[in-house]
């Protein structure tokens, strides 16, 4: 799972295995360890008991929860992503959770074999 920040938005990119795991109810978690030992964790999970997405930031990092039905539907859908705009203290927090498409220009050792294939352009 990849995480990208831009202004007041977060973008998570998931490969095929991660999308399947999320739809099966498994949480996904990654971390970044800084040289002094500080750790930034980010987590995505699907919950069967919520109807709306949520996002939290605390000392343990970033946690995003989406409805299970959204994750299950997305697994078999052709949709590239699922998107949320959550109210915050100022501008809304925009969250994009997208299928990670294969990078055809990257060196072979950097390519994710579980990435989604790119569809040919029309």
Structure write-up:
14% of the residues lie in helices and 42% in strands. With 122 residues, the chain is mainly beta. The chain has a single domain, classed as 2-Layer Sandwich (Gyrase A, domain 2). The strands form 2 sheets. The chain has a 4-stranded mixed sheet. It has a 4-stranded mixed sheet with strand order 3-4-6-5. Helix 1 packs across helix 2. The longest helix is centred in the middle third of the chain and has 9 residues. The radius of gyration is 15 Å and the shape is globular. The two termini are 29 Å apart. The mean pLDDT is 90.
Could you list the spans in which at least 5 consecutive residues all have pLDDT below 50? none
Report how far the terminal alpha carbons are from each other: 29 Å
What proportion of the residues is helical, as a percent range? 10-25%
Whole-number tally of structural domains: 1
What order do the SSEs take from the amino end to the carboxyl end, as H and E? EEHEEEEHEE
Give the neighbour order of strands across the main sheet. 1-2-8-7
Q: What is the CATH architecture term? A: 2-Layer Sandwich
What does the radius of gyration come to? 15 Å
Overall pLDDT metric: 90
Major sheet summary line: 4 strands, mixed
Shape summary: globular
Q: In CATH terms, what is the fold-level topology?
A: Gyrase A, domain 2
Number of helices: 2
Number of strands: 8
CATH class: Alpha Beta
Strand pairing plus helix content: what structural class?
mainly beta
- Percent range for β-strand residues: 35-45%
């Amino acid at each position: 799972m990849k995480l990208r920040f831009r202004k007041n938005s977060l973008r998570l990119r998931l490969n095929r295995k991660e999308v399947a795991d999320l739809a099966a109810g498994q949480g996904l978690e990654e971390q970044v360890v800084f040289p002094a030992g500080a750790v930034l964790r980010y987590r995505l999970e699907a919950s069967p008991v919520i109807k709306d997405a949520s996002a939290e930031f605390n000392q343990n990092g970033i946690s995003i929860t989406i409805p299970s039905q959204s994750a299950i539907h997305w697994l078999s859908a052709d949709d590239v992503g699922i998107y949320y705009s959550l109210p915050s203290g100022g501008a809304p927090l925009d969250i994009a959770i997208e299928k990670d498409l294969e990078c055809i220009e990257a060196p072979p050792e950097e390519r994710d074999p579980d990435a989604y294939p790119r569809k040919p352009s029309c």
